Amino acid sequence: MALLFGIGYAGIIFEESLAFNKSGVGLLMAVSLWTVRSIGAPSTDIAVSELTHASAEVSEIVFFLLGAMTIVEIVDSHQGFKLVTDNITTRKPKTLLWVVGFVTFFLSSILDNLTSTIVMVSLLRKLVPPSEYRKLLGAVVVIAANAGGAWTPIGDVTTTMLWIHGQISTLPTMKGLFVPSAVSLAIPLALMSLTSEVNGKEQETPNVLASERMAPRGQLVFSVGIGALIFVPVFKALTGLPPYMGMLLGLGVLWIVTDAIHYGESEGQRLKVPQALSRIDTQGALFFLGILLSVSSLEAAGILRELANYLDAHIPNVELVATAIGAVSAIIDNVPLVAATMGMYDLTSFPQDSEFWQLVAYCAGTGGSMLIIGSAAGVAYMGMEKVDFFWYFRKVSGFAFAGYAAGIAAYLAVHKLNISLPTTLAEVPFLSGS
């Protein structure tokens, strides 16, 4: 099974060279692995029971992604994101660098990093003419999208996976990872501000914003759509139901709203949910389905537990394990890495919101920025702006690595501070009651 997984994953990594779509490879790998598992299991009934359990967990993530992607597509079709992009008025290169970085950072904390990258790179095409500077701004979007997605449960697929399965919860994650995520963006921005592409000349870039007009009642759709996304963790806290139910609730509300506001409009059909469903990245959802089912087969066979035991024996330091996961995610997609980690370590080894799970969320989310192929945001940017792998490696990877390392240091510093603070306060006479 390990050999099959390795072959399948090689097919995913070299998808461009082999001309095989990674979604097809992922689905083929999943079915092959579970077939082998059914043959090797004590009985077919046991294998079927394991597959049923794995399918239930994986389906939650797929339904969540489909709902989120549809909501974002509806908002985008109404040009709702112009409410964000139209407020970026500066044209000074250094200022624009920081503005784009932090707008993407906070946008990605609400949306997913892939959608945020697509929105912001599309904006850059309207703000800045083709140049090395625009390519650098695009790289900032990738780093910021990955950093912003790491500190909220709905900002990145991997943090969503950890959240859905109970390894992390909403408020402790946001409080614990906001500072490290912000540091992992601020350090690259500070270093990039010193480069010749930014400081070569303080020219005012022309305003080449496209003359797109917001669709009728686009502000309403934007408000309802973003509100639906933000309401998901609130829904989970209020009802105790899985997050995908909150996402489907938000999609249902937005569906009714768009049907109502475009009732009787012949041109409004393209703005309704059925059209949005035809435009979402279904093959991406199928890729996640295939890769997560594949990893669950390794978990069912006990392979991941053996790997965890090996890591425990040779790398007893949890910080190093999480850091290594982030470094590997620059080469290998972080979704299977986090899925494998969840299979290797359970909540009895590391309880919810422990230092280990928060570090895994941070490292897997931001580590992919070190190479352009290390994250969905990087791959999208590579395709949209035709950026070369080696250009990114020479110009950006060092900055991204500096931010990644600084963020880990910031997390450890804040974590140790939070541990020592109550002890210090308890020693104050009037607080201890003495």
Describe the 3D structure.
It is found in: Membrane. Helices cover 75% and strands 0% of the residues. The protein has one domain (57-200, 213-417). The longest helix has 34 residues, at 44-77. The radius of gyration is 22 Å and the shape is globular. The termini are far apart. With 434 residues, the protein is mainly alpha-helical. It has helices at residues 2-13, 15-18, 22-40, 44-77, 82-85, 93-110, 113-127, 132-150, 157-164, 170-192, 196-199, 218-239, 243-261, 273-279, 282-300, 303-314, 318-328, 334-344, 355-367, 376-385, 389-395, 397-426, 429-432. α6 (93-110) runs parallel beside α8 (132-150), α8 packs antiparallel against α10 (170-192) and α17 (318-328) packs parallel to α19 (355-367).
Structural features:
single chain, 434 residues, mainly alpha, 23 helices, disordered C terminus
Our estimate of the beta-strand percent is: under 5%
Portion of residues within helices: over 70%
Give the uncertain stretches in residue-range form: 419-434
The structural class is mainly alpha
Pfam families: CitMHS
Keywords: Antiport, Ion transport, Membrane, Sodium, Sodium transport, Transmembrane, Transmembrane helix, Transport
Membrane topology: Multi-pass membrane protein
Organism: Manihot esculenta
Write the topology of this structure.
Blueprint: H1 2-13, H2 15-18, H3 22-40, H4 44-77, H5 82-85, H6 93-110, H7 113-127, H8 132-150, H9 157-164, H10 170-192, H11 196-199, H12 218-239, H13 243-261, H14 273-279, H15 282-300, H16 303-314, H17 318-328, H18 334-344, H19 355-367, H20 376-385, H21 389-395, H22 397-426, H23 429-432
GO molecular function, one term: antiporter activity
Keywords: Antiport, Ion transport, Membrane, Sodium, Sodium transport, Transmembrane, Transmembrane helix, Transport
GO cellular component, one term: membrane
